[in-house]
Amino acid sequence: MFVVSTPQFQSLLGENYLNRAGLKLIDLGAGDGATTRKMAPFFESVFATEISKPMKWILDKAGYTVLGLDEWQEQKYDVIACLNLLDRCDTPLLLLDQIKSALLPNGRVLVALSLPYAPYVESSKFKQEDNNNNNNNFNNNEITLINTHNKFLSCILLK
After folding, report:
1. Which of 2, 48, 41 is nearest to 23 (CA)?
2. Average pLDDT over the chain, rounded to whole?
3. Is residue 29 a contact partner of residue 49, using CB atoms and an 8 Å limit?
4. What mean pLDDT comes out for the span 53-58?
5. Measuring CA to CA, which residue among 116, 112, 113, 38 is closest to residue 81?
6. Of 25, 32, 75, 109, which one has the greatest count of Cβ atoms within 10 A?
7. Which of 40, 3, 15 is nearest to 25 (CA)?
8. Which fold has domain 6-157?
9. Does the structure show a pLDDT above 90 at 48?
10. 14-27: per-residue pLDDT in tens?
11. What is the pTM of this model?
């Protein structure tokens, strides 16, 4: 699935921001690393998380440092990419809080969500009824966007 090209990524974050030495990126839920490869040229260190063993192997072979789900937030990053992941994890609000904690001052977060927002968790340590992202009765993209902002993004910006 196409998320962002290298020129689009550069335009979103700005050349001035990306032309600094020693930048660190983490791509959360990186999959096979196709999008990670689009962002990686601007960073000295590139980290990734992924739950799929075959995808972890691909990321490792591509030269990215693959971190566990319980260890990635122990470091601080200049850029955290959370692309098409919030609707696939069982605790999106916790993940956003972890992202905020792991972001360096003046850091950037790149979030992508599929609209309409339709959560689907393949692998979870919680029972489905414990899932905190199960409000799936939006009826159009505008309402989805407003609710997604209120539910997820405001928890980062307003805390």
Report:
1. 41
2. 82
3. yes
4. 96
5. 112
6. 25
7. 40
8. Rossmann fold (3.40.50)
9. yes
10. 999 999 999 999 99
11. 0.79
Residue ranges of domains in the chain: 6-157
SS3 content of the chain, % helix, strand, coil (to 5): 40, 20, 40
Instruction: Please tell me the distance from the alpha carbon of residue 97 to that of residue 155, in angstroms, as a whole number.
Output: 8
CB 23 within 8 A of CB 44: yes
Indicate if the pLDDT at residue 117 is higher than 70.
no
Measured between alpha carbons, how far is 147 from 36 in angstroms, rounded to an integer?
28
DSSP alpha helices (H): ranges in 14-108? 15-18, 34-39, 53-61, 92-102
The residues, ordered by sequence, that sit 6+ positions from 152 with a Cβ below 8 Å of its Cβ are 86, 92, 93, 96, 111
Any idea which residue has 């994890």 for tokens?
Answer: 89
DSSP reduced 3-state for 101: helix
